[in-house]
Amino acid sequence: MADRKEKLQRIIQIGIEVAQIKDLDILLEKILSEARILVNADAGSIYIKEDNTLKFSYTQNETLRRRIGPGKKLIYTTFIMPITYKSIAGSVALSGELLNIADAYKIPPTSSYSHNRSYDEKAGYETHSMLTVPLKNNRSEIIGVLQLINAQDQKKKIIPFSGEDELLIKPFAMYAAVAIERAQLTRTTILRMISMAELRDPKETGAHVNRVASYALEIYEFWAHKKGIAQEEIDKYRDSFRMAAMLHDVGKVAISDTILKKPGRFTEEEHDIIKHHTIEGAKLFSGARSDFDEIASEVALNHHEKWDGTGYPGFVDIQTGRALPGFETRDGKPRPKKGEEIPIYGRIVALADVYDALSSKRSYKEAWQEDQVLQTIKDDRGTHFDPLLVDCFFEILDVIHSISSRYPDK
User: Fold this and answer.
1) Are the beta carbons of 288 and 301 closer than 8 angstroms?
2) Could you confirm whether domain 201-406 is CATH 1.10.3720.10?
3) Any idea where the domains of the chain sit in the sequence?
4) Model's pTM, two decimal places?
5) Cα–Cα dist 96/86, whole Å
6) Rounded distance, CA 67 to CA 94, Å?
């Protein structure tokens, strides 16, 4: 009874914690991690409802993670499936009722749903006990499905999920659904801001900014672990950083169409005007009232600085656009930042943005071949990019590639 009381108190605390997470991707990771801890599940997935389909949006598997070694992440591909009674997740989405399966390999042939073993076969994993829960908002509408896999006892032996697990997961799912819907609204608002930038600059698409933000977050986490930064400190800013990275070029809304959409090469004067988007973006988040405002301003201002001091806009007063006192060049312009003078979030987004820009097809260019992109990044190590960040990038290249496939251009 005491253990159950502690778990119920933890659910309330989780509800408070997830309510503070605004980024959808980070929220899904948090929800799945906490749900697995709550019922001691080895693995799990989250599906998000999109019209009449379920989008496989996030997954975790501790057994498979241990196989790939410390510091590495599972590679997975998102997919969309129709909501029907043929699948377990689809059946729960349609019925709105929790489904507790003792052994997925022993589902009676008379059941409308069945377990797709193809994933198990590819991964070398066996899915037995499954607890599949509808995620309902305050209006009792299904917004997704939470699926927990392979409950374990204290000796890591796979056991069925219990009736108590069912009682605990129901209020948890309620908190999770409300948080997900709130995060979806935040994501929609950010993408609308980006859509305004896209009207001025066609490369600022939702897929592009989601890729850049995801690349940036993975690079940041890997870099932070290498630097010995505590996980608590890393987690503190992940949410704000990912959203800020999505908005790195939002300052382009202030640049004239006649310049942004000009065919051919820019004049030196026009190029100087375009450079001003960094200052305009930073200005949007000035007068910081939150960590997000501060980080978003930092990213917008600094993502075009270069490690060797040849970037822009340099040490500038974002309100006036002029050089900060003591940081003027001989011609009175702001001195570019160099090396670690460039804030870490700006250095990271610079790398993530260039990788995606070179890898993507645009109206004015074809996508570069991957080996050409990677060689360019290697060549620019220590000039354009922070050398340590480039090293981190290559160490997690498999994760980078998986992100690229998760957010394809439409």
Assistant:
1) no
2) no
3) 2-183, 201-406
4) 0.86
5) 15
6) 35
Is position 252 annotated as part of the catalytic site? yes
Fold of 2-183: Beta-Lactamase (3.30.450)
CB under 8 Å to 231, separation ≥6 — which residues?
A: none
Are 207 and 46 within 8 A, CB to CB? no
255-270 residue pLDDT tens: 887 777 776 677 888 8
Task: Please identify which of the residues 30, 136, 203, 252 carries the catalytic annotation.
Answer: 252
Q: Which residues pair with 55 in a beta bridge?
A: 48, 80
Same fold, 2-183 and 201-406: no
Mean pLDDT of 294-318: 97
Distance of CA 109 to the CA centre of its chain: 39
Other C-beta atoms closer than 10 Å to the C-beta of 231 total: 10
Candidates 52, 17, 50, 22; CA nearest to 35 is 17
Q: Are 44 and 60 in contact (CB under 8 A)?
A: yes
**322 CA to centre of own chain:** 35
